[in-house]
Amino acid sequence: xxxxxxxxxxxxxxxxxxxxxxxxxxxxxxxxxxxxxxxxxxxxxxxxxxxxxxxxxxxxxxxxxxxxxxxxxxxxxxxxxxxxxxxxxxxxxxxxxxxxxxxxxxxxxxxxxxxxxxxxxxxxxxxxxxxxxxxxxxxxxxxxxxxxxxxxxxxxxxxxxxxxxxxxxxxxxxxxxxxxxxxxxxxxxxxxxxxxxxxxxxxxxxxxxxxxxxxxxxxxxxxxxxxxxxxxxxxxxxxxxxxxxxxxxxxxxxxxxxxxxxxxxxxxxxxxxxxxxxxxxxxxxxxxxxxxxxxxxxxxxxxxxxxxxxxxxxxxxxxxxxxxx
Length: 325
Description:
This protein is α/β, with parallel strands linked by helices and about 325 residues long. It has 13 helices and nine strands.
């Protein structure tokens, strides 16, 4: 069954008047002609709504505005998940209000997604993600690679690795209808085990779904300027190995190290728990994720062996992770 849209760009906005015009300009410049923009406003109090209305009148971009059923802000995660749940399409892109897309972003990522469709069919969840150039608020490039800046690798796409390292911001993603349908099937299974409060961010959850139930592909090139500024909901981060060591030593001395690592692990366990809400999760994935949830019951040596044997770890700083998991 075909979706309402062929290609839908899901744009979540909130008080984006400073950067939204640049983003919209980059969407006008896309070399792929057939796409619709679906917008959800999380309760903006600035000129965001007017900018979008003016854009519709001035440029004729195919923009469709959704009305959320509640006036309470849901944050980036809630806003994007509302867009996904409310939009029927064959191909999806997630779009942040403050980035600038390269003119070939849609065409390059959709081409890779179509290659996955040709190889695996379109009934499995399929997701493509790319790299991004990280910039400051004025679009001055701070790093030519989001992945390198954060010590990540786009080739690490097994669910065991993605569980620990979220390799792709949502703004770099393109995925098919089957991924959206799989997400909907696990939307809520029970009050304490299926609610979206379990997951920290929507993009990490979508990556896990694609990795466990379908296929991921990394497009090894930047497709946008990933703008960083003081109003970002989630930043690009980035930390050198030396800075990581200095920070860890400082946290050990201050007594916050163990607490921070415990909070990190709890986030990953909540994601594992959310994945286990799917009734048809493959046996291997179910076994590994269930074991990960029980890691606190293991002795230190057993924990380290479990993580190593199942290749659960980080691209960088893996020793730190396994020592203090």
